[in-house]
Design goal:
This protein is mainly alpha-helical. It folds into two domains: 1-123, no CATH class; 143-214. It has ten helices and no strands. α4 (90-100) packs antiparallel against α5 (107-120), α7 runs antiparallel to α8 and α9 packs antiparallel against α10. The longest helix is centred in the first third of the chain and has 41 residues, at 25-65.
């Protein structure tokens, strides 16, 4: 009797499963098709991304290799175009090359390119913080203290590994403006910061002991 009941239950379950597939054949077919399309789409996208990366690498290498002997205007335009590609690797590299070689001299234009890389290149968090710091460093020779602090705000108000660098930049900025009280405040923040860079912390302590101990 128990065996008969087991057979009946098994047959019932099988019939329910069969009816479920028969009643939902169209929905299941669409669902499976969508999953297959998503998988294919992912691999197509990754292949496109890889090819685009290789193309950007070739463009960047060609521009930098031919910088000395090539057409400066074309190379400048090509590097700006690479920045505008918003790639997390080659857009920052192109921007640094433009700055280091004084290819673009307009500060506003350089800051526009910085903003593209910082805000649109989908960078990892600490890479983004590093580039924010580099933007502040670039601006430190000519910007007002309010604008410089505004640039550094995301880094100074975080636990970033670049926070001590940002504080040191502001400490030096105020020191060379002979605003020693403000300078001392920033150097003291480095000393008490738990994750301060050891070299930066040492330099801050030296500045405090040597020049700001009054």
């Amino acid at each position: 009797m128990d065996e008969d009941i087991t057979i009946i239950n098994t047959n019932t379950r099988a019939e329910k499963i069969k009816n479920f597939f028969n009643n939902n054949k169209k929905k299941l077919s669409i669902f499976i098709s969508v999953i297959i399309l998503i998988i294919f789409g992912y691999f197509i996208y990754k292949d496109f991304e890889k090819k685009n990366k290789i193309e950007l690498a070739n463009r960047y290498n060609f521009a930098t290799i031919n910088f000395i002997s090539g057409d400066k205007t074309k190379i400048k335009n090509e590097l700006v175009d690479i920045v505008n590609e918003k790639d997390r690797t080659y857009s920052p590299l192109a921007l640094y090359f433009l700055i280091d070689n004084n290819i673009i001299l307009e500060n506003n234009k350089i800051n526009e390119l910085f903003d593209i890389v910082i805000n649109e290149a989908n960078l990892e968090k600490e890479i983004k913080n590093l580039i924010i710091f580099k933007k502040a460093l670039f601006n430190s020779d000519f910007e007002t203290e309010n604008n410089l602090l505004q640039i550094l705000h995301p880094v100074i108000n975080s636990n970033s590994i670049w926070k001590s660098h940002a504080l040191y930049l502001m400490g030096e900025y105020f020191y060379f403006k002979n605003e020693k009280r403000k300078s001392k405040e920033f150097f003291n923040q480095i000393i008490i910061l738990e994750n301060s860079n050891s070299d930066i912390k040492l330099e801050a302590q030296k500045r405090l002991n040597r020049d700001l101990s009054e």
